[in-house]
């Protein structure tokens, strides 16, 4: 299972519309769009989980594609190293 970052989504993007976009390349296992707490609109990015070969095909097919006037950014999620960040000083 691979987690894919999807950026440059329009505010009106929903899990259903993004799932429809990705099912062209295989089965979407899970999806999470980041939403504004108050307006409940999409903040412009989210994450999709697919099997490895399907994820690679989706990235190749969707990265740079125009979607509702925006150029999508689609890539494997990068694991961040948060050492030393967010810790309280004593």
Task: Please characterize this protein's 3D structure.
It contains two helices and six strands, in the order βαββαβββ. It is of the alpha+beta class and 90 residues long. The strands form two sheets. Strands 2-3-1-6 form a four-stranded antiparallel sheet. Strands 4-5 form a two-stranded antiparallel ribbon. The N and C termini lie far apart (40 Å). 17% of the residues are buried. The mean pLDDT is 92.
Task: Give the helices and strands, then pairings.
Elements: E1 2-7, H1 15-22, E2 30-35, E3 42-50, H2 52-62, E4 66-67, E5 70-71, E6 73-76
Antiparallel strand pairs: 1-3, 1-6, 2-3, 4-5
- pLDDT below 50 for ≥5 consecutive residues: which ranges? none
- Strand tally, please? 6
- The helix count comes to 2
Radius of gyration: 15 Å
Query: What is the arithmetic mean of pLDDT?
Result: 92
Strand percentage: 25-35%
Output the structural class.
Answer: alpha+beta
Shape verdict? globular
State the share of residues found in helices, binned by percent: 10-25%
Order of helices and strands: EHEEHEEE
Give the biggest beta sheet.
4 strands, antiparallel
Distance between the termini: 40 Å
Q: Report strand order across the widest sheet.
A: 2-3-1-6
């Amino acid at each position: 299972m691979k987690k894919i970052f999807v950026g440059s989504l329009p505010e009106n993007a929903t899990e259903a519309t993004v799932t429809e976009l990705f099912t062209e390349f295989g089965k979407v296992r899970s999806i999470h769009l980041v939403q504004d707490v108050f307006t409940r609109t999409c903040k412009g990015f989210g994450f999709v989980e697919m099997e490895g070969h399907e994820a690679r095909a989706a990235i190749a097919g969707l990265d740079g594609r125009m979607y509702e006037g925006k150029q999508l950014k689609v890539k494997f999620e990068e694991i961040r190293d948060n050492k030393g960040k967010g810790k309280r000083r004593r």
